[in-house]
Design a protein that fits this description.
Length: 266
């Protein structure tokens, strides 16, 4: 799975990490695909750049995307962008469809946890590979706690997580501690005391590994594009992931990153 692989690889010496990262790239078709099954969310977090909306991806469109991906061997999928994936009316059918099309496909869900008690048993039985819980206060039942221990990653935001919650959840097997993200400048993180730094940047791995498809079929460069700033086209009969992955537009963005130029959302 992409998240597990990158977590391991980034601990390796830089030259070895570079070789392994490049060997994982598939220029014919992306290895990991973000699919925004729903744009709907039941929370209103101040640090989220997405405006409130309730649209869901048409399930027939979802199946078309998975059908195309299945032609290229096992892939990994994140079924979210800025919505809460457990609000998608077809979420269990979507997970089942991915697993039936290719047994070696892997699935990642990032959730705010508010509906985890309702779905914990089914997510476990369907074989969701990883669940990232972005910490919000929740009263989890035993099934949710066991699911998080077995398949979960606890994501704690430094600026938002109370100290006592850090101490509690840091005891779990897999914990991810992060700063707030500015989403390409769409969020002013200075309000939380964060300062922009002029650090050396490597080209973004999303351009070679992980594009995103928004709820309406728009294909964009990465999961941080809340407003469709970098949309290249809409998924339909004439434009799909393979066409996008080999498009002149995406090649141009890749080349600009290799030159150290980070324009637009980047």
């Amino acid at each position: 799975m992409l998240t597990k692989w990158t977590g391991i690889a980034k601990k390796l010496p830089s030259p070895l990490y570079k070789v392994l990262a490049q060997s994982y790239v598939d220029l014919q078709f992306p290895r990991h695909i973000f699919i925004e099954t729903t744009a709907n969310c039941n929370l209103s977090c101040e640090y989220c750049p997405r405006e409130k909306r309730k649209e869901d991806m048409d399930f027939e469109l979802f199946k078309q995307i998975i059908d195309e991906c299945s032609q290229y061997g096992p892939r990994s999928f994140s079924l979210h962008l800025f919505g809460e994936p457990l609000l998608y009316p077809h979420i269990l059918d979507a997970i089942s469809y991915i697993k039936k099309k290719q047994k070696r496909n892997t699935i990642l869900l990032t959730t705010n946890g508010t509906l985890l008690n309702k779905f914990a048993d089914e997510l476990d039985s369907l074989g969701v590979d990883r669940i990232i819980w972005s910490f919000r206060r929740n009263n989890f039942n035993d099934a949710s706690i066991q699911l998080l221990r077995k398949r979960g990653i606890i994501r704690l935001l430094i600026e938002e997580t109370p100290k006592e919650e850090f101490e509690r959840w840091s005891k779990f097997p897999r914990v991810e501690i992060k700063h707030l993200h500015n989403y390409g400048g769409q969020i002013d993180t200075a309000k939380w005391g964060l300062k922009e730094t002029e650090e050396f940047r490597y080209p973004c791995y999303h351009l070679w590994l992980a594009p995103a498809i928004r709820w309406n079929g728009d294909i964009t460069i990465c999961c941080n594009d809340a407003s469709g700033v970098e949309v290249s086209g809409r998924y339909d009969g004439g434009f799909n992931l393979h066409a996008y992955w080999n498009s002149r537009h995406l090649r141009g963005i890749r080349e600009s990153h290799l030159r150290g130029e980070y324009k637009g959302l980047c």
